[in-house]
Amino acid sequence: MKSRRNNRGLMSLNPVAASILLSLPLMTQAANINIKNGTLTSANGVPVININNPNGNGISHNIYDDFNVDKNGVIFNNTSSGANTVLGGAIAGNGNLTSGSAKVILNEVTSNKKSTLNGMMEVAGDRAHLIIANPNGITTQGSGFINTEKATITTGKPDMQDGQLKGYVVNGGIITVNGLQSDSPTEILARSVAVAGTVVADELAVIAGNNYIDTDAKVVGAVTATGLRNTYGVDVSELGGMYANRINLISTESGVGVRNTGVIAGGINDININSNGKFINSNGEIKSVGNTHINTNGTLENVTGSIVGNGKIFIDTTKNTISNTSGGNISAASDIIVSSGALNNTNGKIASGTLLAVNTNGMTLTNSGKGKTTGLEAGVVALKTGVLDNRNGQIHGNYIGIESSEINTASGAMEAVSDISLLSTGNIDNTQGLIRTQSGGINIETANSFINRNNITADETSADSLGVLAGVGGIKVKAATVNNRTGKLGSSGTISIESTGTIDNHQGNISANKNISLSTLGAIDNSTGKIWSDEMISIKGASLNNSLYVGHILGDQGVKIDLTGVLNNHIGVVRSEYGDVQISAKGVNNKGGMIVGEDINIKSSSYVDNHYGLMVANKKLTIDAVTDINNSYGEEFSNLYGDYFGMTGQIGGMIGREGVDITANTLDNTHSRVIAEYGPLNLKMSGFIDNHYALLNSGGDTNIKTNLLNNNYATIYSLGDLNIDVGSLSNYSSGSIEKNNATGVIASEKIFR
What we know:
- The protein is an all-beta fold.
- It is built from one helix and 86 strands.
- Among the domains are: 1-154, Single-stranded right-handed beta-helix, Pectin lyase-like (Pectate Lyase C-like), CATH 2.160.20; 390-525, no CATH class.
- The relative contact order is 0.03.
């Protein structure tokens, strides 16, 4: 039976019962320690437990009916010779330790009573692994550990086999932490853990769930749970916090997640969070000097939350959703690696000092918001997604590489110092958006459409610029169709556009300091658009519409157009300041248009229409058409269309300063002119030449061969020899054939005057 005497709450031990009860006569929670197989004394009002003699494995196993610690704390006496303690000062030696001090001090509660730890727990003498095990539940308030090799509080039942502690069987119980501190590695093992105060430790392991956990704090198996499960395996409240050099936080119970609305702060030895359910960090803060690993089997919610670190951040949600919205922040000085399902970064930020790699496993990545605290940012941004929705969003990096089923960056921005690479099996839409590199190139490749509409701005370097703007690395676009209507493609390097469908540059602008190449199996529409290059322009397609009020194709070093269909240059411009213009097409419509270059070479498998138009070659003009050439009414060029080009008073027609060579079925030069200013003029028509009210002029020799020549009210003038070979010549009224030192021949069956 128990005997009691009241001496500041100290109760004597009945040797028969082998139990002691210590209590303080206060209204607050008092120490209540009822040990079955040990002895209890005190030092300056602090309970001292003379632990049992350790077994051959160094384990001192102490069993309790009650184990509660008040604010004065408790001392576990692990010295046979006495020691100075922090809590109680000098204490006498523990006479139970006949075999030496313990390496492990196991304290197990076997009743159905919970434990409350309101004070510090100190190991006197040699440091040891201190374990408090109570399956009924444990609550701490301002508690902690002193002089421990390691500290463990658990609701698990210790698994002792052959005198060895193998691990803990955790099938229930809650540990509520309202404050805990330790200068040694610390373990909190329970079915569920609630942190409402500050936890400070050297290293901290928190494991929740119905588990078998070994003595290295590793989950090696599951056990049958008892009772109802909590919503969260680990729940850190707004006033809660974990601070340790290393933090391992694990919740293993299926569907039971982790919630942090407080602070989880790790040192140089990493933070590891593993949840078999969702992980909620909304309004919470996770920060680490080292790396951070977060693995979930459910969603990750970081709404207004913060996950930051000086090291790397690894996040794997097993293809579940991540919400990093409303000011959510995931930032690291080093790499950020994310594997998830759908990722929502609306008004959130994910930023890395080195690499940001995100794989949404075929699901959507939503990135919107253009404030300073929003967007995706890294030295290297590598995204592999289903749909990338960057509408009104921003992505910044030294390099940006994106592979998606669809990319929508309408009203959004992607900016890189070096290269940007966009690959998609669906559409890539940059309507009113910005894709820009400072020095590198931009590569855009899609199996469907590339859309770059409504984004022409005057200043290509400002924060408000729109379009696709590249540095010297150039622009490469490969798509089924390209829609650049009222859009801008600009490059300090080259531009290459390859399409299997159509290229639409209506009212658009494609400009480069280097070569421009457009290649498509379909039609190209540059009506009222501009294609400008400081070097060469090469265009290949089914047809080209360069019409409607000054469509411009200007290649300073040359223009080459190769079409299987028609070139429509109606009121358009094809021009090269210092290079040649080469055109090959099924038909050429230059009605009211202008073609200017050094050498101009036009080859048509049908007609060439220069009605009201102007062609000027600074060197030689060569035209080869299978059917008809219409060069009529060039004299009306200025009146009808010259103002569009700023050429008031300019007469149209065909001019080759070093010579003109034209071959066709017919040539209609009515009210117009063909001039070889300093070189020969060669006209070869299998049908007729109609030159009435017109001028054929050569500064060199002239050779005309046709079946019928109509020169009524017109002039054919040659500074050199004039050779005319016709079947029939009509030279009515004031028509004349003039020659200068000519020895030419006129051969005709009939000549009418």
